[in-house]
Write a structure and sequence with these properties.
CATH superfamily: Aldolase class I
Number of domains: 1
Strand order of the largest sheet: 1-2-3-4-5-6-7-8
Radius of gyration: 17 Å
CATH class: Alpha Beta
Bound molecules: 2-phosphoglycolic acid
Helix content: 40-55%
Distance between the termini: 18 Å
Strand content: 5-15%
Shape: globular
Number of strands: 8
Structural class: alpha/beta
Largest sheet: 8 strands, parallel, barrel
CATH topology: TIM Barrel
CATH architecture: Alpha-Beta Barrel
């Protein structure tokens, strides 16, 4: 059985003082323990999140990491540092990192492998642009990304890899992919993992949908067979809506 996973991607939101308030608020809600709840604040608030969430089941994730473990890489954060803090997940290959920071599939693949080697669980993002969807190339795009990003992984790695399907046109726009479209792509991603790594890997891997997920649509999205979770931006920035997402 794949455990559902709802992860809040805070992006570049919430200062230290604001994060403290939000985390304290989140702690006041009763969250369904059958669902894995994850908060992914900016780096500078990871230690705070670990400390404040210590007595809860809520996991902490980072939004990026370098593939090297130490050295002369000014401004970067090592997976070893994240592991040392008790961080569990690392979002990788988010479309904002691909677009604004020029992250290539080759780089993302190095990061995915490094996280796994260092005991962290990647949440690997993929997804097409509106133009690609409208021209019928959405699946081709996701295939190219995943073949490159997952290269070199073993069947065992899929106990620890989460894939997030995030159509770029649905991120932060209020436009959600229909639950059926999201399911169709997530089923395709599972079939792709099967073709590349075998049946066992495809049954184990957890696949999230992301893009304008909110309390009003989470239930329908989560009812789909191949959707095991959601990666949520905007709606994860308020304690009440985050709790409603986790308690879908
Ligand atoms: P959104 O962002 O929920 O605000 O659309 C999702 C994401 O980028 O992970």
């Amino acid at each position: 059985m794949r455990k559902p996973i709802i992860a809040g991607n805070w992006k570049m939101n919430k200062s230290y003082s604001e994060a403290k308030i939000l985390l304290e608020e989140i702690k006041r809600f009763d969250l369904n323990k059958e669902v894995e709840a994850v908060v992914c604040p900016p780096f500078i608030n990871l230690a705070l999140a670990k400390e404040l969430l210590e007595d809860t089941n809520i996991e902490v994730g980072a939004q990026n990491a370098h593939f090297e473990t130490s050295g002369a890489f000014t401004g970067e954060v090592s997976p070893v540092f994240l592991k040392d803090l008790g961080v569990k997940y690392v979002i990788l290959g988010h479309s904002e990192r691909r677009e604004y920071f020029g992250e290539s599939d080759e780089l993302i693949n190095k990061k995915v492998k490094s996280m796994l080697e260092n005991g962290l669980l990647p949440i690997l993002c993929c997804g097409e642009t509106l133009e690609e969807r409208e021209s019928g190339k959405a699946k081709d795009k996701v295939k190219v990304q995943l073949e490159a990003d997952l290269k070199g992984l073993s069947v065992e790695d899929f106990d620890n890899v989460v894939i997030a399907y995030e159509p770029i046109w649905a991120i932060g726009t209020g436009k959600t992919a229909s639950a059926d479209d999201a399911e169709e792509m997530c089923a395709y991603i599972r079939s792709l993992v099967k073709a590349l790594f075998g049946d066992e890997a495809s049954q184990k891997v957890r696949i999230q949908y992301g893009g304008s997920v909110k309390p009003s649509n989470v239930k329908e999205i989560m009812s789909k067979e191949n959707i095991d979770g959601a990666l949520v931006g905007g709606a994860s920035l308020e304690a009440e809506s985050f709790s409603q997402l986790v308690n879908f």
